[in-house]
Fold:
Amino acid sequence: MSDAADLAVLIARLTGVADEMGAVLRRAAFSPNIKERADCSAALFTPDGTLLVQAEHIPVHLGSMPASVAAAIEACGDDLAPGDQVILNDPFAGGTHLNDVTLVAPVHRADGRLVGWVANRAHHADLGGAAPGSIPADAIEIQQEGLRIPPVRLTPEVRTLLVASSRTPEERAGDLDAQVGANRLGRARFAALADAPLDDVVAYGERRMRAALAAADDGVWTFSDVLDSFGPTAEQQHPTTIRLAVRIDGDEITFDFAGTDPQRRGNVNAVEAVTVSAVAWALRSVLDPTIPANGGALRPVRVLVPAGSVVAARPPAAVGAGNVEVSQRVADVCLGALAQAQPGRVPAASQGTMNNVLIGGAGWVYYETIAGGQGGRPPMPGSRSTGGVAGQSGIHTAMTNTKNTPVEALERAFPLRVRRYRLRRGSGGAGSAPGGEGIERDLEVLEDVTVSLITERRVSQPWGLAGGGPGAVGENWLLPSGDEARAERLPDKCTVQLVAGDVLRMLTPGGGGWGEPRA
Structure:
């Protein structure tokens, strides 16, 4: 396709298909987690499984989804008829963590020839396991985290198995059916574009990425950061280091995680696909966010991960927190290294955690990630100001792009009551562009429940940049019967029992500041 305008229109049309898939999935879903929080993603792929376009959904979902499609094609690609779909959630076969269920469907022309693939991923609030929400804080093996599905054709029997594994079977059935419907819609829309030059879209992504890398300086830059812990016990309450060296050489770039600590006996481990997703997000964010997010853009990018490390875990490691917490720290180390390679283009560290809250009672499970502070940002390109731009407050950052569950929807769906919900003043790091503020939230449970918390940045602070100060660390508290005088500090990762009337208080981290603080 020689006409740039025609190519832009084609990319927009294809992206619109993914957007519409996501809208269908949200509207049809049963769970507040998908319907309200939009914890789902959709994308289109070429016949060989190369990422073609994605909607602006969840970065950690989308960057790892090509591994799911590749696994589906390898396991079932030759046995699929028009209308079939492949289901999987196995982190060691293309997945991320067990909650993220991926459906992959082939798209055919009227004559039966393959056009490409559509896929969507949604976080299911419970798929069994040792604790409600399927991310038990004390898990050390993946078997403790719930139902594990390798890539298989979705049949009524497989659907029955998934539904039966959950503490909330009706919700699981509704969410799964919504995923099936989203792929059906995507299949029809994509088939209507069967004659489009899809290879031109992928080639354009590669040209844009190579041009951006060629315009950058060659060199090697290093950075490291830590995860605070990998479980609730004393033996697990010590840091894990992630190390990175970034090398730019002409129009290619390498991210080398050599020296990163080994995978841990806990659930704070990520599979390789999650690490790749964080690399892809950070690189596009820094070089040029308008570079198309497709497989071509990643052809000049090499990601080297030590097998058996915390960024490339091997079975039978538990990986529930890898998708939600390790991904955030991988993003941080990528940004830290790229800040040296591209001065003035990278913000200070954002909150660096998803602040996962999982609560289960009689026949219900609630899951949410709580927002925090964004890092202070350098001046906008072309701006006359040298002071930068303050970080946003109370927002999801980096590898998550979900919304919050509205208080009205939360209290209608679950026996929970929000007692306090406000910005955490003073939590952002100092700087000419201060870090954004975290959130304070008090949540009262109205019946006896099991609570799991999977959080980070409770010891290490979100770092400042260009002379800015760090953001405040987060805090987790239990207020028995809501009594401030009896408040108990909770670990960053724990599974605990609460009784009706208890209050769970979470203070989320602020973002780091950018630039020297003004006098």
Notes: The chain is about 25% helix and 20% strand. The mean pLDDT is 96. The chain has three domains: 4-196, 202-345, 347-519. The longest strand covers residues 114-123.
